[in-house]
Structures are given as C-alpha cells and as structure tokens.
Design a protein that fits this description.
The complex is a heterotrimer of chains A (293), B (261) and C (346). Chain A is built from 11 helices and 2 strands, in the order H-H-H-H-E-E-H-H-H-H-H-H-H. Chain A has 293 residues and is mostly helical. With 346 residues, chain C is mostly helical. Chain C has one domain: ABC transporter involved in vitamin B12 uptake, BtuC (Orthogonal Bundle), CATH 1.10.3470. Chain C is built from 16 helices and 2 strands. In chain C, strands 1-2 form a two-stranded antiparallel sheet. Chain C is globular, with a radius of gyration of 22 Å. The chains are: A mainly alpha (293), B alpha/beta (261), C mainly alpha (346).
C-alpha cells in the first residue's frame, strides 16, 4: 500500500507537469492547427532562464517564476512572429523543419550558455525536503507545491480563456480562422498571443518542476513526446482533455514503472500515442473525429 | 436500356438525413440534370452513387450491376466517371499527365515493369500518351498539354477534367456543376461538348447544375432535390412550371417569367 | 545560358567520379563518400513516400535501423552469409514499413507524422532493451564485407557494393516515377478523392510507397552494418530521422534528383559542422530555418527550369513528341484567342 501511495503521488506530480505542457500544446494546436515540435525545448529554455534568475542571480523563487513566465511569453511571441508566421502557408513540412531548427538552436544555446552535453543543472528545493504525510501517503512538500502551482496556472489560464476578450478571440480563431478574419479579429496577432501564452505556460511548468527533476538541455524532446501523448489522449482539441490526459499519462507511467519495470516507463507514452491515434483519434474528450470522410 | 437505377437511397450523417428515399432511373444515352437549392443533397447523391459515401439504405445499380457498398475504384472500373465541383486536377502533374492518369485502371504496367522500363511498359506509356493527346484534342485543350495542372482558368480545368474522365471510356459520367463560373459563350461551348459526348461516344450523363440555360438546353430530363428528397422529375419545361419546385427555390432562379424572356 | 549538362549527365558524371575515389582518397574520405551514397538511397526512398506519395511518415530512420540490425543479426546469430543476410534485412524493413500503411489510411498530416514518430521511438526502445536478441544498448560488432578470394579489401569492397546498389536503386526510382505508378503516387498526394474516382486504389499505392521506402531504407541499413563494422541503436534515432527529412526538403521533395542533391548537401554540411564544435547545433538549426524560409521547395527547383532537368511523370518526354500543331497560333499560356479568354471571374 505504501508503494501504491508513493506511485500515486509521484504520478500525480509528474502528471501535473505533463498536463501543463500538454495544455500549451493543445492551446497552440486549437488556434493554429499545427503542433509545435519545439514546444518541449521552449519549456527547457524557460527552466534555464529561471535557473539564471533564481540560482545564479539569487532572486526569490516566486520572482524567478514570474520572470521566466514573462520571458517565455516574449520568446513565444518572437518565435511566432519571425519564424512561424511566414511559414504558415507553406505547409506542414516547412513548419516542422522550422520547429526542428528552432529546437536545435535552443538546445545549442542552452549548452553554450549554461552547460555541457549531459550536464544537469541543480535547482535547490523550495521547501524542506523532509516528507510529510497527506492522507496516509508520504509526499515531499515540493510535490505539493508543484501540484498547487500547476493547478493555479491552469485556473488562471482557464479564466483567461473563458472570460477575457482575448480568450474569446482565441476561441473564435481556433474554431474557424477564416470566419474570424471576416469578423475583424486580428488573426495574426491572436496567433502571436497564443504562442506566447503557450510558451509562458511551458515556462511556468519548467520552473515548478525544476526543483524536483534535474534540468538538462535534451529534456525538451522527451517531455514533448510525453506531453503530446497526454494531449492526444485527451483529444487534441480539448483543453480539459489535455489536463486529464496529462494526469493520466503521469499515472500510467508511474504505475507501469513501479509495477512492471522502469524500462516500460519510457515506452508507455509511445504506445499510448500509437494506440490512441490509430483506434481512437479523437481521444477521450475530443469532439470531431480526426478522420476525413 | 436502364443505365443507372437508384431505389430508396438514403444516407444520414450524424443525425442529419442528407438523402431520404431517393429513387430514379436513367436510360442509356440520356442527359439528366439534377437541380435543387444549396444543401439539398445533390453532391451527396453523386458521392453516394460513386461510392465515396456509404448509403444507409437503398440500392444502386450501374448497367445492371449492383454497386451500392462498393468502393470508388471498383465502381470506376465498372464504367462510372466523375468530375468534381472544386477542380480536382492534380497540381503536381502537367495537363497531359493528368489525362494520362485517367487511363490508370486500364493500364497494366506494375512497379517492377516500371522500375525496369520493360518494353511493354514503354509501349504502353507511349500509347497512353497518344490517347491522352487525342482526348485533349477532342475537348480542344491540346495546346495546354504541357502546362502544370492548375495553371489554367477553372473553366479550362473543368473541361480537362472531362477529358480525363472520358479517356477511360466510361458508360456513365457524373458531373458536378460543370458550368459554374463560365461566361455565356463558354456555356454554349459546354452545351455542344456535352451533346457531342453523348452523341459520338454514347456516354450517359448526369449533371448537377445551377446554370439554367444549360439545364434547359441540354438535359432530356431533370430531377429536383430539396432537403434530401426528390420533389419532382420530368422534362425541363415541366419542372420549370412545377409549383413545388418554384416554391423550393422561392422564385429566385426558376422564375417562369424570366425564363420566357 | 544553357547548361551543358542535363540531370542524366550529371548523375553519370557523379557516379563516374565516385568510382574513382578509392584509388585516390584516404580512408576517411572513402568512408564519407560511401556514407553519402547510403544517404542517397535513404533520401530517394523517403522522397518517394513523402514527396511523391505525400505520406508524412517519420519512421524511416527506424527502417534504416531494422535493415542494419536484420542484416547484422542474421549474420551474427544465425551465421547467414552476407549475400543472404543483407536482402533479409532489407526485406524485414520493407515488411515492417509496409505495416505502417494501416494507420496511414486513417491519419494524415501531423497525426500520421507523430504516430509514425512514436512508432519509430518504440522501435528504438525495442532495439535498446530487447537484450536477448538485439544485444541491447551496447550494440554488437558486425562483420566487415569479406570478398575473398577476390583481391579487394573490405573497405573497397563495401564501397563498390554500395556504388552498384546505389546506381541500381536510383535508376529504379527514376524509372518508377516516370510511369503510371509515379502518376498514381502524385494523384494520391494531390487529390485522393479524384484519384479514387479514376480507379486508383489508395491502400495499394500507399502500401507500395511504404514498401519501397522501407526497402530502400533497409537496404541502406544492410550496407551500413559492414561499413561501420558495428551495429548499435545510436545511429537510428531521432537525429537520423531529422537528417533524412532535411535532405529531402533541402534537395527538393517530389524529385529524384532533389534527393540526390539533398544527400550530397547534407553530407557536406555535416562535415562542415564538425568545424563548429560547440555551436554546431545553433548553426544547423539556423541553416534549417533559413532553408525553409528561402528555398522551401528545395535546391532542385533552381535547376528545374533548365532544359534537361525536368522530371516528367511519364517514361519519355512528351514535350518532344506532342506539340501543338504548327498551324495553331502560338498563344500565351492562358489563351490569347477570344475563344479561350478567361471567363471565370473567381
């Protein structure tokens, strides 16, 4: 029972992380109908930037978090404006290759500025490392902070999406970009905001997660694939789905890692992607099926 | 001789009944028009006959052979041709290559023959190119043979699509709005071309069309669909005077007075 | 300015030059040229699937690996001689690659790309962890090519074998696309619905495209094993997939010549990047982005305007045989005569 509790806590915590990153992926997908291959690397850069602020410059954690989020926002906006917008009409392959190029640039920059090929950068924990008991399960306080932080970000985002003008414009653009344009919505600018917000979310996830997991330049792609699995499981067009998918993947990983073997942990998300896309492409919560008639 | 027989054809998409118990026959050598307000199910009808959609009920036979439930390539090989509302010429090929594709299912060369460039494959390619050239001449488009598939106006593309379909020697061709966007002169040309196709090649034609002039001029009979239901069938002059038809259109296109002038 | 070479002559010269390399170059250059030829095979195969047939599948690097592992393991575990193990590896890759057609029937675009990518990563994981069969992460040594009693050393031997195979596979691809098969691929890419209505069976042609690219990748893998003398999961990972994808985009999708160009450029680029040491990734990423922004259709488009470089989809150039009759007025492409004046006010 102890093990199950431990796995549950661990699964929920990493699940929260995947949920956040999946949220970013889904938001960008809903608006632009494309998946940003470099999303994970943007997350990684957010984490490294937070490291700079918090560990290297000694700023308080919360300040570092906010700055990293702001930096993510800015970087996302720049990337969309400079790299993705001109290529949007060129088709998938161009966008994919541009994202790949971006991924390399981000990784190379991280290595050049902060560390070597395999270097992990240590992020000190925010709370005391001694475990406390929650409902009979032992958790490390950092995990609770991660969870709380993730939920806070999701709530803020949900509020933004539902209640602000920008959020409604994003929804409209996501549903039908042409119609949105006709109605006067500045679609290009919405894309910029969408990318910016998606990246900011990823940045926040990185900062929340950094004290628990070691941050290294190559973490981007691994995280991207897992979070993509989460987004697909939830149905790429559903925001609550992305969140649910994230927690599910986190739990699947934890459980398969604990009960089957650690090696299966890695591969479980690949299997999820393949199975879902082939047998249930709309995921758990997606509305339209992805098949063409 | 009945070329196409449709009985009780119905299809629904997620709760919307797009076609409801549609029945009609088409005799060989007829030119049939299908008209109806937008959203009446005309294109769905064509899609269902040609196998792109699966009917939920009903029967379809082509020249006596039941085709409901067959996949489009199989129906094509039984003698059905089809053109589309939005031009479906392949942009990655020249016009001539597009028309050559129309003979795909009659050609025999497989991957190995192609990879090794056997003599029979080369002869077949040559013969196909010649036939494609002839098909383009038939519709008057041979001067564009080596242009990319989409470097032409929609009207020209549509005519080439007709050539691409004709080259396969179909028995029946379904045309989806062949005249859309054409000028008066071009509609007259299309009228002549369609008649030639029927008279010289013995092909039966079914066309969805909104251009009144063409429907009245070239169709032997007209079917009217509204909300997935066949509401009238008969000669063009009868249809135009049919009060149900006029009501369906709310007098916008089929105004008898306008037509008389 | 009319270029003296058409694409055919260019290829001839290129392969002639490659034939001379073993006599004049040091072992490292020999290795690079050999690898370059394998990249040509990979690029040509992938281009048929992605460029011609339009299937956005990202599992080719895995097929490359399966070919190498297949050939290597058949030799090492079952003692098969190379001339059986190599086709064995290639056919194994072809079969597995063809199985991917089933998701491809329902998925397209990003979904196909990411699901095939997931499959590739799954295969990578299998190679890494199925220790009893694949020797796990450390890999295993694969025998060099032994052409005794012929007086050819292993390095030269694998070089010429690769040379022969590359020429054959490029020639096959060249002919294949200039046929009804090539037209069928383009039809599937450009208009599935119309293609079906013309009698083109989507499953059959997609499967064929997957089979061909799988076979080509597997063959490259089977040649790679003796070239390196070692087989391990590393060379068949995501980065390899990125290289392959980049080759066909940089060279030109939907073009056999483009694949060759892309492979040559990539080999050159990868060598060049060594000089950059720590900023390798930044340079590579920037070059990719620059390419995609400024030459998205590939380098080959620069050449395709020149006579002798077109790539028709039929087995002889119809332009030479079918020209509008001399009596007809030489009209501008959209028709200068009033009869054909543009009427569609779109």
């Amino acid at each position: 029972m102890m093990m199950f509790g431990y796995l549950l806590a661990s699964g929920i915590t990493t699940g929260a992380l995947y949920a956040l990153v999946a949220l970013g992926i889904t938001v960008v997908y809903k608006a632009t109908r494309s998946v940003n291959f470099a999303h994970g690397d943007l997350f990684m850069i957010g984490g490294f930037i937070a490291y700079t602020f918090h560990v290297m410059w000694g700023l308080p954690y919360v300040v570092a978090l906010l700055l990293a989020v702001a930096a993510g926002f800015a970087i996302g906006a720049v990337v969309e404006r400079l790299a993705f917008r001109p290529l949007r009409d060129q088709g998938l392959v161009s966008l994919l290759l541009a994202a790949i190029g971006l991924s390399f640039i981000l990784k190379g920059t991280a290595r050049a500025v902060w560390g070597g090929k395999g270097d992990f950068i240590p992020f000190p924990p925010i709370a005391t490392p001694s475990p406390i008991s929650v409902g009979g399960i032992l958790v490390v306080p950092q995990q609770l902070i991660v969870l709380a932080g993730a939920i806070a970000v999701m709530a803020i985002f949900a509020g933004l999406f539902k209640f602000t003008k920008l959020g409604r414009m994003m929804q409209a653009t996501a549903d039908n970009a042409k119609a949105a344009k006709l109605v006067g919505i500045p679609v290009n600018r919405v894309y910029v905001y969408t990318m910016a917000i998606g990246t900011a979310i990823a940045g926040s996830a990185a900062v929340l997660m950094a004290p628990i997991t070691l941050l290294y330049p190559d973490i981007g792609f691994v995280l991207f694939i897992k979070s993509f699995a989460a987004a697909v499981l939830g149905g790429l067009t559903s925001i609550p789905g992305a969140v649910a998918g994230g927690f599910l993947i986190g739990l699947i990983e934890a459980m398969s890692g604990g009960y089957i073997s650690t090696q299966v942990q890695d591969v479980s998300s690949y299997i999820v992607i393949m199975l879902v896309l082939v047998f249930m492409p709309q995921g758990l919560f997606g509305g339209r099926a992805l098949r063409r008639v | 001789m009945t070329m196409l027989s449709v009985r009780g054809l119905s299809i629904s998409f997620g709760g919307v009944q797009a076609l409801n118990d549609v029945s009609f026959d088409v005799e060989a050598g007829e030119i049939i028009g299908i008209i109806g307000p937008n959203g009446a199910g005309k294109t769905t009808l064509l899609n269902t006959i040609s196998g792109l959609n699966r009917a939920t009920a009903g029967q379809v036979s082509l020249d006596g052979v039941p085709i409901k439930g067959l996949r489009p390539p199989q129906i094509a090989s039984l003698g059905l041709g089809r053109t589309f509302q939005m031009s479906q010429l392949f942009p990655g090929m020249t016009v001539l290559e597009n028309v050559m594709s129309g003979l795909h299912r009659k050609m025999r060369a497989g991957a190995f023959a192609a990879a090794f460039r056997t003599r029979s494959m080369r002869e077949e390619e040559q013969a196909t190119a010649e036939k494609a050239w002839e098909a383009l001449r038939y519709v008057g488009m041979e001067r564009f043979a080596h242009h990319p598939g989409t470097a032409l106006s929609f009207g020209q593309q549509r005519v080439i699509e007709i050539a691409r379909t004709l080259i396969g020697e179909p028995k029946l061709v379904l045309l989806d709005e062949p005249a859309v966007g054409l000028s008066v002169n071009r509609v007259a040309e299309l009228d002549r071309l369609l008649r030639r196709i029927r008279d010289e090649k013995g092909v039966t034609l079914i066309m969805i069309e909104h251009v009144v002039r063409l429907v009245m001029g070239v169709c032997d009979r007209v079917l009217v669909l509204n909300y997935g239901v066949k509401i009238a069938e008969g000669k063009p002059e009868q249809i135009v005077a049919d009060p149900q038809v006029i009501e369906a259109y709310l007098g916008s296109e089929f105004d008898a007075k306008r037509l008389a002038s | 300015m009319r270029l003296l070479l058409g694409s055919r002559q260019f290829l001839f010269l290129m392969f002639a030059a490659l034939a001379v390399v073993p006599a004049v170059a040091n072992p490292y250059i020999l290795y690079i040229c050999n690898l370059g030829m394998l990249y040509v095979i990979l690029a040509v195969g992938l281009n048929i699937l992605v460029g011609y047939a339009g299937q956005f599948a990202l599992a080719n690097a895995a097929m490359f690996g399966i070919g190498a592992y297949g050939a290597g393991l058949l030799q090492v575990k079952l003692g098969a001689p190379y001339f059986l193990a190599a086709p064995g590896g290639a056919i194994l890759a072809m079969l597995i690659g063809t199985a991917i057609v089933f998701p491809a029937l329902r998925l397209s675009g990003i979904y196909l790309g990411l699901s095939t990518l997931a499959f590739a990563m799954f295969s990578q994981w299998v190679l890494l962890h199925w220790n009893s069969v694949t020797f796990g992460g450390g890999g295993f040594p694969a025998p060099h090519l032994d052409l005794s009693p012929l007086p050819i050393g292993p390095d030269t031997g694998i070089y010429f074998l690769s040379w022969l195979v590359t020429i054959a596979l490029v020639a096959f691809a060249w002919s294949l696309v200039r046929s009804r098969i090539g037209r069928a691929f383009v039809a599937v890419r450009d208009g599935e619905i119309a293609a079906q209505s013309l009698g083109i069976d989507l499953l059959r042609y997609k499967a064929l495209a997957f089979a061909i690219s799988g076979f080509y990748a597997g063959t490259a893998g089977a040649l790679y094993a003796p070239l390196l003398g070692y087989v391990s999961p590393e060379g068949f990972d995501l980065f390899q997939m990125i290289i392959q994808k980049s080759m066909i985009v940089v060279g030109g999708m939907g073009s056999v010549m483009g694949s060759v160009l892309g492979a040559a450029v990539m080999v050159f680029l990868l060598e060049l990047l060594r000089a950059f040491k720590s900023t390798q990734e930044i340079v590579f990423g920037s070059i990719l982005i620059a390419f995609v922004m400024f030459r998205p259709r590939g380098l080959v488009t620069l050449l395709q305007r020149l006579p002798g470089w077109e790539e028709p989809l039929s087995s002889f150039d119809p332009r030479r045989l079918f020209a509008p009759a001399a009596s007809e007025p030489a009209s501008s492409p959209l028709g200068a005569s009033p009869e054909l004046a543009d009427e569609g006010r779109r």
